[in-house]
Write a structure and sequence with these properties.
Elements: H1 2-6, H2 10-52, E1 57-58, H3 59-62, E2 77-84, E3 90-97, E4 100-111, E5 117-125, E6 143-151, E7 162-164, E8 167-170, H4 175-182, E9 189-193, H5 214-248, H6 263-282, H7 284-290, H8 293-309
Helix pairs in contact: 2-5, 6-8
């Protein structure tokens, strides 16, 4: 019971709560978060590898009109014929290219012979003085282009599309919002123009095929989640062991030893006892005449000490 009471103290209770909370966070939140990002990155890399080894196909083959976008077809190249709608272009700000600020240009593209509109990311341009953007014109008339399918992005609160300096501006390519904003409702995807295509601007390279540190980070969080309870168990074991060892020690073992008796004091006591005994046994009368046993004893002791130590 005493051991149990020890671990019910506030310090041990706080340690237990911290260990449980930390281990739960590692196993439930932190490790799955990093391992999930690793899985997503590997999945994206597999799609890019497959797309690089596939020839372009007609857009209706991979993305039929009105059908939900198939995420498995992302990064595949498609071809389509139609015309750019320059008047409804969108500036996608807060982008970088080559570690420098850039603005991507998103232009609606109407397919020939239909009312279907697909948004095309033509690439990037560099902002000028005062954050102005000079957008090169697109080819006029019907044009055939090749581009890669991309899924739509999400928009954070407060980052909805808006008109700035007479141009439709956005911070993410959210087709669900950009379609109504430009007056051209479109399917829930867009395409990224391939290099050297009509209307292409600065090339947006494909992501590098690397998994990043997510797997190692996930494994580290799992290891931390295991180490926390193991460390707590070790401290508990050490505390119990120390208390048992203290309990097994005899009560007088911890008492300090008696101070050592000096040689002079020991001899003085021995001689005093011997002198008292001899004085009583041999001649009690003589001792009394000298002035009492105590005086005779003291004189005898001093005489013997003087003989032994020279004092």
């Amino acid at each position: 019971m005493r051991v149990l009471k020890t671990f019910l103290r506030p310090g041990w209770l706080l340690l237990g709560i911290f260990v449980v909370a930390f281990a739960a966070a590692c196993f439930v939140v932190l490790a799955p978060w990093q391992l999930g990002k690793n899985t997503e990155t590997e999945h994206r890399n597999n799609l890019i590898r497959e797309a690089e080894n596939s020839a372009p196909v007609a857009i209706d083959e991979l993305a039929p009109p009105g059908a939900p976008f198939d995420a498995a077809s992302e990064w595949r190249e498609v071809s389509m014929t139609g015309r750019y709608l320059d008047q409804e272009q969108v500036l996608i700000r807060l982008r970088t290219a080559g570690e420098r600020p850039s603005v991507e240009i998103l232009t609606p593209f109407q397919l020939a012979g239909s009312d279907r509109v697909v948004f095309v990311n033509r690439g990037y341009v560099r902002p000028g003085a005062g954050n102005t953007v000079d957008v090169p014109a697109t080819p006029s008339g019907d044009t055939t282009i090749v581009a890669r399918l991309r899924k739509t992005e999400a928009t954070s609160a407060g980052k909805e599309p808006r008109v700035e300096n007479g141009m439709q501006t956005a911070y993410t390519i959210d087709i669900g919002l950009l379609g109504p904003a430009t007056g051209h409702p479109a399917d829930d995807f867009y395409v990224q123009l391939s290099p050297n295509q009509p209307g292409a601007l600065g090339e947006i390279p494909l992501p590098q095929l690397e998994t990043g540190p997510y797997l190692s980070y996930g494994l580290q969080w799992l290891a931390f989640g295991l180490m926390a309870p193991l460390g707590a168990a070790y401290f508990i074991y050490a505390e119990v062991k120390a208390r048992r060892a203290a309990k097994d020690v005899p009560a007088d073992a911890s008492a300090p030893p008696p101070p050592p008796i000096k040689d002079k004091d020991r001899i003085r006591r021995e001689l005093r006892g011997a002198g008292t005994s001899s004085g009583n046994d041999v001649n009690a009368g003589e001792t009394a005449e000298i002035g009492g046993g105590a005086v005779g004893d003291s004189a005898a002791v001093n005489a013997k000490l003087a003989q032994r130590y020279g004092k």
